[in-house]
Design brief:
Distance between the termini: 18 Å
Order of helices and strands: EHEEEEEEHE
Oligomer: single chain
Shape: globular
Largest sheet: 8 strands, mixed
Helix content: 10-25%
């Protein structure tokens, strides 16, 4: 399964540790080979709250190209606003398909310009997953 996720075409330095983590998540769902097409993995902290905070929800989308899964996007969400105006929105978005990134407070950037941010985000994210912070769900199609 490890060779199934391709990081070679990604414009960011995706670590082998992230590849292994995502591979293990996919493997744990015991998907049939026919289900290994486009995969969306959601990581949620059930206690994340606009008032109290918590760990941001993350969505990872992988798309099948030839016989590999390529990164489509990784999005980190956060609450913005207050009271009844609070909404969940993208805080950081790494869009591999379009080679563009987004950061809530600085706008759009070429993906490679967010390389250092990605390294920091990735190391924190992996640590949170290893601490079993998230409820993880996988959808295909």
């Amino acid at each position: 399964m490890k060779a199934l996720i391709n990081k070679e075409n990604a414009a960011l330095p995706i670590s082998n540790k992230l590849i292994e983590l995502l591979t293990n998540v996919i493997a744990s769902k015991q998907l049939k080979p026919t289900e290994l097409n486009d995969i969306t993995i959601n990581f949620r902290d059930d206690s994340y709250d606009p008032e109290l905070g918590g760990y941001h929800p993350v969505e990872v989308r992988l798309v099948k190209v030839n016989h590999h899964l390529n990164f489509d996007y990784i999005t980190d969400f956060c609450y913005v606003g207050s009271g009844f105006n609070t909404e969940l929105t993208k805080e950081i978005d790494f869009d591999f398909t379009n080679d563009v990134g987004f950061q809530l407070y600085s706008g759009h950037h070429k993906l490679i310009e967010l390389s250092e941010l990605f390294k920091l985000w990735e190391s924190n994210f992996i640590e949170y997953v290893e601490q079993d912070i998230f409820t993880i769900s996988v959808t295909t199609g």
